[in-house]
Amino acid sequence: MRCVWAAVAAVFCLVAVALPVSAQTSPGPAATTAAPEVPVLDRLKKAAATWEPTLNDVDKRLNRPLSGRDAETLDGLATRLRAVRDEAVLFRQAATDRLAETEKLIEALGPPPKEGEGEESKDMKARRQSYADLLGTWKSRQADIEVTAARAETLLNRISEIRRSTLVTSLFDPTPLPWMPDVLARGGPELLDGLLAIAASPVDWYQSGDQADRREAAFNAIGVWIILAGGTGWVVRWWMQRRFGRRPDIESPPYGRRLIAALAEATAEGIIPALVLGGMIAWITKTWTDDQGLFTRVMVSGLLNILLVLITRAVTRAALSPGLPSWRLTDHGDQQASKLAHIVVVLAMVVAVDRFITGIAVDMPPSDASTWIVSALFKLCEGLILIRLSNADLWGRPKPEEGTEDGAPKAQPLATPSQEDDEAKAGEGAFRLLLLLVRLSVMLVTVVGMMAGLVGYGRLGIFLIDGLLATCAILGAALVLRGLLHELIGVAVRWSWLRDRAGYEGPSLNKMKFWLQALFDPLLIVGVVMAASPSWGVPWRDVLDGTVTLLTGVTIGSVRISIVDIAVGILVFLVAMAITRVAQGTLQRKVLSQTGMDAGVRHSLTAVLGYVGLVTAAALAVGTMGIDLTNIALIAGALSVGIGFGLQNIVNNFVSGLIILVERPVKVGDWVIIGSHEGLVKRISFRATELETFTQASVVIPNAEILSSPFTNLTLRNRLGRIDVSVLVIMNSDTRKVRDLLLEIARAHPQVLTLPAPWVVLKAFADTGLEFEVRSYTSNVMNRGSIASDMRLEIDRRFREEGVVMPAPLRPIITPAAQTAVHPIPDDQAIQVLAPSVEERPVAEKTPLAEVKPVDVKKPSISGHSTPANDGR
């Protein structure tokens, strides 16, 4: 099955590479088959005839005064220029291909005969002249295409520059200072009159005598719609909350379940307002005419903004889930989530009032004084709320509790910190730094926007505050969309139908899920930038053009870098290597195994095929990326001179580092023993590898030394490892009982695997007893030390309960009678032997105190074993 999927991937790669070439070779929407040269040239001539007038017309319009450069006009001109540029790019590829074909034909004819070599036939001369004329024609057309594309790009840049200059001029155009007395004197009464007119508009509408019949019809229609929409919305709300909503009895739901519940809750909470208010807005917009006066605008704008507040509240409470922390989509605490939800709703209310008044102002054009007073007031309020949202107390991760529920300290892991833990800490630190930068940026932009409106740059303040609000809203929606896409990818990957047909499971499915998610994330980022760019004065088409240019190729000096070419080259390399691995497996299992060759010969042939496939894949990838091998040869020549003058060690370590990174005999996070050094691999660079010992010391080992000497990697393939615990019992112990106890202790440990199962061996007959060894496996060898310690403690406890005796170690005892004799005597017999040898002698024969050498007297330890009296422990 994997062979089939690898072949499908190869075909897909070839088709993906071939389709753009065929599309570029055949420009024009009507070209469905390979067209001969003459029609292509005719289409090129026809298209080129329209390029020059279009470019001239756009250039003429751009040279007009600023009054003719409004945003709509510039958008139309940019659209015309993009059409010319895109068509020129397509024909440029076709002209390049035809030019290469003509040069090959001329090269195939060879050079004309020299004098004295005979005269060339007329047919050959005519053909040579025809090809030469065609070559000149294509070169001329190619030059015209290049000029057209360059001119169109230049005009597009001029349009972008006009947009930027117009925007900057508008933003820094001074406005009235809202706090000046004269501005307040002019704008205050007008603002008050406007508010009174808005408040009186419903009364005026109701008291108008000629609207009685229409009022009654409106009330009847709105009442019926509220009943129908409210009832339907309540039923839908009840069903969605019951089917997909949160369930307090589920303590730890997965993220996908929380996301679905949040979407269901947001939809359920917003379905009734959306149906009721949305229906009312649609009915008013369709049935009411302009003769309703100000009240129509008040109703439509008011209902729209009320709907905005209600939907914002529903989405915020669904995501933050105040009161149900297990269903929360973020890492906020209960107090943080509650505060954040309230602040967001307040911000939505302030924005809704701002939008309402701005929309009403269309029907009663205010003066500059009242306009900028209202603008400064609302931007100041919105800015203060944004600053409150940026405070650290709302975004700092809640600290975990120090103890358990009963106040006892939590158990700490006995394993050595792994590389994953270090990477998690580093990732958390990077996240906090990024969050800090985002908060500081938001606060800085907010403060500038607030102050701009107060110091007479109201347009700048509106631009910054509104752009920031729109960006925050788009980012929030993008995060929800990202979670939904990731969850859909996870569901698709876990689909049993796909697993059965793809033949992948376990880690392979996780890798597939990761790469699919990694593919969608850049697309989502581009979409967010395109959606948010208009809020900052940048058209989304400019963002799209920049993204396409970045992907298709950026020229730096004489080097052209194309992300698409690099990605396709990497894909070609991976597909070629996959085919190579499949070919190796097929050769090893189905071909060579039937020949009766020696295993070493079969392995050598398979390895040769692998190296050939590697070289072929690299060559295909380099060719696809368009890398000039001449430049690489020059660099290699320069390096060879340096190597010859004393860079052997550096190059040796550099090449060894490349080999380590490719073959991966050592990876970051592995537990290795290199020479006399043991520890975890922290970093692998091109020159050396950094090893962190268990005493937190760093050892830097050159890469060449790692490859030139044998070493032990305890976690090369996986973290499975064996734990050996030796124990000594006295000679007359029951061996079966000891074996059963050791097996029971090993099997009872939670981190010891049941398969392979633990076993016990009688390792040796020692001088003082029987030496047993219990051997077991764990899934994480990093915990080997803590598991062995736990087992030894349990062995000591169980042996005491079961009466199994462990002998004391032998100690050398020097007696006064024979100071040069050393008698290995067990600790528990040392005092009994030494006391008679000293006390039974006469007093006169006793050695003076100064001549008596100290005796190693044993004191009984707490655990029952004897320890030296002067041990100091």
Average of per-residue pLDDT values: 76
| Unreliably modeled segments | 1-38, 401-419, 827-873
| Envelope shape | flat
Rg calculated over all Cα atoms: 41 Å
**DSSP helix count?**
24
Strand content: 5-15%
* SS class: alpha+beta
Number of strands: 14
Q: What share of residues is helical?
A: 55-70%
Largest sheet composition: 5 strands, antiparallel
Distance between the ends? 64 Å
Strand order of the largest sheet: 6-5-4-3-7
List keywords for this structure.
873 residues, 24 helices, disordered C terminus, 5-stranded antiparallel β-sheet, 65% helix, 3-stranded antiparallel β-sheet, disordered N terminus, alpha+beta
3D structure, described in words:
- The chain is α+β, with helices and mostly antiparallel strands.
- Helices cover 65% and strands 8% of the residues.
- The protein is built from 24 helices and 14 strands.
- The chain has helices spanning 2-25, 37-62, 71-109, 122-171, 181-207, 212-244, 255-287, 294-320, 334-360, 368-389, 392-395, 419-454, 458-493, 496-502, 507-532, 540-552, 563-591, 599-625, 629-644, 648-663, 703-708, 735-748, 784-802, 830-839, and strands spanning 554-556, 559-561, 671-674, 677-684, 688-693, 698-702, 712-713, 721-729, 759-765, 770-778, 810-813, 823-826, 858-860, 866-868.
- The relative contact order is 0.04.
How does the SSE layout of this entry go?
Elements: H1 2-25, H2 37-62, H3 71-109, H4 122-171, H5 181-207, H6 212-244, H7 255-287, H8 294-320, H9 334-360, H10 368-389, H11 392-395, H12 419-454, H13 458-493, H14 496-502, H15 507-532, H16 540-552, E1 554-556, E2 559-561, H17 563-591, H18 599-625, H19 629-644, H20 648-663, E3 671-674, E4 677-684, E5 688-693, E6 698-702, H21 703-708, E7 712-713, E8 721-729, H22 735-748, E9 759-765, E10 770-778, H23 784-802, E11 810-813, E12 823-826, H24 830-839, E13 858-860, E14 866-868
Antiparallel strand pairs: 1-2, 3-4, 3-7, 4-5, 5-6, 8-10, 9-10, 11-12, 13-14
Helix pairs in contact: 1-17, 2-3, 2-4, 3-4, 5-10, 6-7, 7-8, 7-13, 8-9, 9-10, 10-12, 10-13, 12-13, 13-15, 15-16, 17-18, 22-23
